[in-house]
Amino acid sequence: MAGKQDSLIGRMFRHFKGNLYRLEGFAKDSETLEEMVVYRALYGDGGLWVRPAKMFFKTVERDGKTMKRFELVEDAK
Known about the structure:
Number of helices: 2
CATH class: Mainly Beta
Shape: globular
Radius of gyration: 13 Å
Strand content: over 45%
Largest sheet: 5 strands, antiparallel
Distance between the termini: 20 Å
Strand order of the largest sheet: 4-3-2-1-7
CATH superfamily: DUF1653-like domain
CATH topology: SH3 type barrels
Structural class: mainly beta
Helix content: 10-25%
Number of domains: 1
């Protein structure tokens, strides 16, 4: 999985609500060792965020539709 993860670093993702983020890297929670995604908002003050990887890559249901929480923007790097 490390090779696949490395290929995602620096890539742009669109949140299902519309905002864009750049995946900055992966980290482990120091207490649980859970894999985390570190990502930066590409709007506003460019805040840095962290979220469990399984949540970042999970699907969500909204208004009866199932979609990815964060969708890779293929044409941007």
